[in-house]
Amino acid sequence: MSNAPSRFLVTARAPLTELPAWKRFVVAAQTCAARADELDLIEAPGLVLDASGQRHAPELLAAGEALLEARGFAEQRQRLLAGDEVNVTEHRAAWHTILRAPTAPTDVQAERERMDAWVRRADAERRWRHIVHVGIGGSDWGVRLAVSAFGYAGTWRDVRFVANIDGHAIEGGLAGLDPRDTLVVLVSKSFTTSETLENGARAREWLVAAGLDPADHLVAVTARPERARAWGIPEAQIFRLWDWVGGRFSIWSAVSLTTALSVGSDVLAGLRMGAAAMDAHFAQAPLLANAPVRMALAGIVNRSILGHGSLNIAPYDSRLANLVPYVQQLDMESLGKSVDLAGRPVGVPTGPAVWGMPGTDAQHTFFQWMHQGSDGAPVDFILCSQADHHWASHHRQLLANCLAQREALMRGKTLAQARAECLAEGLTPEQADWLAPHRVHPGGRPNHLIVLPRLSPYSLGALLALYEHRVFTQGVIWGIDPFDQWGVEYGKVLARGIAQALQPVASEARWDSALDTVAQTAATRPADRPSDHDASTCHWIAQLRG
């Protein structure tokens, strides 16, 4: 990792909207028609990106390349991949790419080998029929995704995930398990995550109640091993993270211990290989043939110029159901910012809302809105050319549905076409005139089609790295820090105080009197002197106090 000072602020000196390159890019996007009939394929490791459903005229692509140059993209990409400080508000690198590099630093390689050896020993001894993975956010979604993608037909180990602080989550996670054959994996970078430690405490109590030594059944993954040791976890069962690994980029690390225990270390190795290959593509491919860069430029057009407020993820493979929340966190936690690196408003809409579910379920849930709603949303369609089951007719129908939905969103249906369709069905001209407007599709909905040969660890690793680098590139263009998450922290601070206030008090009358005083004071206090809590929050603390 380089110790060079961050130069990220260099690209933020001029606001995005004042750059001539940005103004040219906007004009090119606004005057460029969608060209769905002109094939636009980008070959990348593990997948093919079809950008035919996006605006991709030569003049727009040239303007996008000039915009990247104006934003110092090449330098920022190099800094990311070299482990320089790119998370400027927290003064850290974001060096997750090194975790999957073929030649990783000695400490990274040593920790990888130590974890693999631990898993091999557990497998050889046939230990731990039950794994309870306790983590939240980036300490949860990637592992869920990998386990569901490659263990969908079941594995000899039963894996359960406990993330939410809701007591039903840990109760259900432990229900029916044999504690003697259960391993609890606690994953927290800081080892202060309230949900994880509270759920972990309940699991520890459960082990003690069964007459077991919790130290024999607990494993931790953290960047603060001293805190895990103080919590009672033996050194040999603590696996290391690094400060420069963001939670939403941590699937490549020991966070995936549960993945290795469930679906095998070979799966984890394949994920890393696919991601490393995408890293090389991102670093070396010409910008206009660079899959993450092309996705980023399309995303900027769709969000900041065309005004689309959301992005739909539509994986046509049920094993990728957890890809949706994975990308949702990656994108929205990274790009949910409204000020640039100099602290100024970006000046254009940034990070879209990300949502979705697998096709064909999505078609029976919200695709009506996608086709004929007043807004619609860009879509990332994802499919696998080959299935890993033997029901060929199922896969043909799955592929047909994906391609048909995409084509309908692109092509649309005019009023004249709808009327002719009605007449062909035997309706009278008057009936056709009435019904035809209801069958019009506006069309022109932007989309990508991402095609994997099949769902393998390599192709999934490449897909995840594709999204990581797309997010980074959009962050560079918008001039924001995609690696911090200060918005989340504010609510955590407030929650600690409210949790204390929800504790029972000795005197109900004294508490009610205090709340009345707070509410009355809040109503008369000047705006620059707010109370600790607003009147409504005070009311509900009183109502909900245990």
Q: Determine the number of helices (DSSP H or I, runs of at least 4 residues).
A: 20
Total of domains: 3
**What is the 3D form?**
globular
Do you know the CATH architecture of the largest domain?
Answer: 3-Layer(aba) Sandwich
Helical residues, percent: 40-55%
Distance between the termini: 49 Å
* Radius of gyration from the alpha-carbon trace, in angstroms: 26 Å
Give short descriptive properties of this protein.
Rossmann fold, five-stranded parallel sheet, alpha/beta, six-stranded mixed sheet
3D architecture notes:
The protein is α/β, with parallel strands linked by helices and 546 residues long. The chain has three domains: 8-92 and 285-411 and 445-478, Glucose-6-phosphate isomerase like protein, domain 1 (Rossmann fold), CATH 3.40.50.10490; 96-263, Glucose-6-phosphate isomerase like protein, domain 1 (Rossmann fold), CATH 3.40.50; 502-544. 47% of the residues lie in helices and 11% in strands. It contains 20 helices and 13 strands. The protein has helices at 20-31, 58-70, 73-82, 106-124, 141-150, 167-174, 194-209, 225-230, 257-263, 265-284, 291-305, 323-335, 367-372, 392-411, 415-424, 429-435, 457-478, 486-501, 508-524, 535-544; strands at residues 41-44, 47-50, 85-87, 92-93, 130-134, 158-162, 182-187, 218-222, 238-240, 310-316, 353-356, 379-384, 447-452. The strands form three sheets. The protein has a six-stranded mixed β-sheet, with helices on both faces. A five-stranded parallel β-sheet has the order 6-5-7-8-9, with helices on both faces. It is globular. Mean pLDDT is 92; it is low at 8-12 and 524-530.
